[in-house]
What we know:
The protein has 284 residues and is an alpha/beta fold. The chain is 48% helix and 8% strand. It has eleven helices and six strands. It has helices spanning 21-24, 27-41, 45-49, 70-94, 137-145, 151-170, 174-177, 187-206, 223-233, 236-244, 257-270, and strands at residues 11-13, 103-106, 109-112, 115-118, 124-126, 131-135. It has a four-stranded mixed beta sheet with strand order 1-2-6-5. A two-stranded antiparallel sheet has the order 3-4. Helix 6 crosses helix 8, helix 8 crosses helix 11 (257-270) and helix 9 packs antiparallel against helix 11. The longest helix has 25 residues, at 70-94. The radius of gyration is 19 Å and the shape is globular. The protein binds zinc ion (ZN). Residues 160, 164, 192, 195 line the site of zinc ion.
Amino acid sequence: MQWTPGDRGDIRDERGRSGGFGVAHLGIGGFLVLLVLSWLSGTNLFSLLGTGGGDPSPSVGTTGQVASSPAEERVVDMVAAVTKDAQNMWGELLGSRYQRTKVTLFRDSTPSACGFAQAATGPFYCPEDGQVYLDLSFFNALSRRLGAPGDFAEAYVITHELGHHVQNLLGLNARAASDRRTGADSASVALELQADCFAGVWGHTASQPGRAAAGKVELDPGDMEEALRAAAAIGDDRLQKMTTGQVMPDRFTHGSSAQRVEAFRKGMTTGDPRACGAAVSSTH
Length: 284
Ligand SMILES: [Zn+2]
């Protein structure tokens, strides 16, 4: 995948702040409450918050300084370029119905309107504040633990989350909210597969030749396969098998590997959000 680094306008960089919020945002009262709860429960709740221990120094995590490496900064540039590119596409497809959002980068944990974003939960979209949350360490897990390396695999993850933003703007997630079912046939799995399909729609756009020369993201040969591998790698059946040794379709939250591959491929080959079951041309 080719992209031009530079514009980070769609990124909210909280990496320098993350990890210290337990102190910075809880205040000393919250700190003491957490200390007592940790003691009562026998669990170090600070470790859940990513603060690591009992150091109440308020300087931790409040400086906004980012300790990073050139390699990590390159990943940030990629995330920024993909986010901008995908949002430009949605702006063209949806017109005034699309509202730009930001990808919040964090380390370990950060507050969101949906609760505390944790690195362990993986990337997610928060409908309450309309933002995507991403800890870059997820890409290491994607590459090493799940066996799906590559920048387009990472772009697929980002554009999947942006797909949830599109659903939120179009009210497509409202139906799923009233459906309390889980499993392969549930409305929530259908939403996840639609987000995969939306990621594929961007993949279609980004595969047009000549984009790199215009400063946009352009796919390389083989990128499509890379994304399909990623879609297969994070199918519920595969993750369940990895973590529990068995497959439980009634507990699916994102769809099987085969379903996710199929959804992404549908978007990628058509380049049309309507193929993803979204009536994006209707006005309301
Ligand atoms: Zn999702």
